[in-house]
């Protein structure tokens, strides 16, 4: 489609692994007139109003000094998202962690911002449920480029439930719970703001893509380099998990 001059908005993840993703991005820049034809990757977490607002509030609080992310759930064998063969018998690394996990990496990267991008990852992975190969759980510690650290935990095979998103900054903290954002200035009054979305951010991302086609300018949030950065973090956790928690350095973060 790109070779024929057609704009493309592809589903996440960008590719099955970083090597393939890098090859695809390099091919795009070398073989396509990127000023005329755009290649974007859809990721609705970058369009969730709660995350956009929370990221803005976090930036106003100065340097990131810590963060935590936890998502816990149980993907049952009869769950609709598991009724495709490529999910039941994944040939791609990470199984459900790759397919679903890039969403949460994208959300985390948005909250942290470019000044606190991930520099190094140490993680442990495991498979708790036999129907979710090859792994369904990851617990990781991240070292950020600014020297701060934080925790990232995702499991699709646990009996825990719920999510937790929080970023601590020098002048306050911000947390996200669904569409509600809690803002806590250091020494100030806490406030909770509701930031609902339509179709979980999908409508906003498709509208943004359509707008970019009209303007002729690539939508920054849909650049394939953003999706490649998401994929790199996820793959680094898997590689670290395979090596018993050995730290993995990241090189493609933006």
UniProtKB/TrEMBL annotation:
InterPro entries: Gfo/Idh/MocA-like_OxRdtase_C, NAD(P)-bd_dom_sf
A Pfam family that the UniProt record links to this protein: GFO_IDH_MocA_C
GO BP terms: NADPH regeneration
Residues in Gfo/Idh/MocA-like oxidoreductase C-terminal domain copies: 59-250
A GO CC term attached to the entry: cytoplasm
Gene3D superfamilies attached to this UniProt entry: Dihydrodipicolinate Reductase, domain 2, NAD(P)-binding Rossmann-like Domain
GO MF, one annotated term: oxidoreductase activity
Protein name per Swiss-Prot or TrEMBL: Gfo/Idh/MocA-like oxidoreductase C-terminal domain-containing protein
